[in-house]
Design brief:
- Its main location: membrane.
- Belongs to the 4-toluene sulfonate uptake permease (TSUP) (TC 2.A.102) family.
- Keywords: Cell membrane, Membrane, Transmembrane, Transmembrane helix.
- By secondary structure, the protein is mainly alpha-helical.
- The chain is about 70% helix and about 5% strand.
- It is globular, with a radius of gyration of 19 Å.
- The two termini are about 30 Å apart.
Length: about 300
């Protein structure tokens, strides 16, 4: 059954879009990561314009984050003070990102920039995940290192320290503000939730307690994704609500099956599989940019 996407200006198979959302939801449920960084590339491969893919994927992330944030809140796994600081930085970052997005869109280079950033992002993340999975499985041996400090020296040296009791931290709010700002910019430009950036940063840079990291990240992602959706709707006009709805339906269903399947498989093998998927997507985007790109620039009709 074909359905017309008004913003994308094309017809797509509705069941296929639901299935695509279900696939990303399945991966999200299995691997414990948001699917935004896979949704956008897969939509682009299908033929959806990158600008529409980015904005619509952000809408899907907003809906998908609600249940996760609520579940962690009920278990007391959210540091709301830290979330508020991250959200403040993310809100400003989303506005700056929207300005960059619109500037690149008017110059006709937004498609190229999105593809290039995804190659760098997915290549780096996939490489790190592959290394960690191989080490965890015992297939690669690393020399033992001295114990690292609880949080980064740069973070510890910042002024104006605050106490974040739920996280067990006494650090400057400038660090989470900067992290939120970066996540906000990337959410607008790439249509990602940013959880795979926020979670490692909060653990390795801030030294946050593990029990509140995921919940705090989800609250921030929920708020910033909602703001980003509004920014896209009012500035870039690239949100296709029909496409976002189809993806969200599939994502909610797929996530349930993915979560159940994850309990039956070895976590390290799951991480290895996800790393391989991410690297394959990055390679496909790199080939699209360097071997024979579909479009070198985009013409926008006003």
């Amino acid at each position: 059954m074909d359905i017309y996407l008004p913003i994308a200006g094309m017809s797509v198979n509705a069941l296929l879009m639901v299935a695509l959302g279900g696939l990303v939801g399945l991966l999200s449920g299995m691997f414990g990561v948001g699917g935004g960084f896979l949704t956008t590339p897969l939509l682009i491969f299908y033929g959806i314009p990158p600008t529409v893919a980015v904005a619509s994927a952000t809408t899907q992330i907003t809906g998908a984050s609600v249940s996760g944030a609520h579940a962690h809140w009920q278990r007391g796994g959210v540091d709301f003070k830290m979330s508020a600081v991250l959200i403040a930085g993310g809100a400003v970052g989303s506005l700056v990102g929207a300005g960059l997005f619109r500037l690149l869109q008017s110059s006709g280079q937004i498609d190229l920039v999105i593809g290039f950033l995804y190659v760098l992002l997915l290549g780096g993340i996939g490489g790190l995940m592959l290394k960690d999975a191989l080490v965890a499985l015992g297939w690669v041996k690393l020399e033992e290192r001295t114990e690292r400090p609880r949080h980064n020296r740069w973070v510890a040296s910042l002024p104006l320290r605050w106490r974040f009791y739920a996280s067990g931290l006494y650090i400057s709010p400038l660090a989470p503000l900067a992290l939120g700002f970066l996540a906000g910019v990337m959410t607008v430009l790439l249509g990602i939730g940013g959880g795979f950036i926020l979670v490692p940063a909060m653990i390795y840079l801030f030294g946050m307690a593990a029990r509140v990291v995921v919940g705090t990240s989800l609250v921030m992602i929920l708020a910033v994704s909602a703001v980003t959706t509004m920014v896209h709707a009012t500035t870039t006009q690239a949100v296709d609500i029909v496409l976002a709805g189809l993806l969200l339906i599939g994502g909610v269903i797929g996530a349930q099956y993915g979560a159940a399947l994850a309990t039956r498989l070895k976590p390290d093998l799951l991480r290895l599989a996800l790393a391989a998927i991410i690297l394959m997507v990055a390679l496909r985007m790199l080939l699209g940019l360097t071997w024979r790109p579909d479009e070198i620039f985009t013409i926008e009709y006003l």
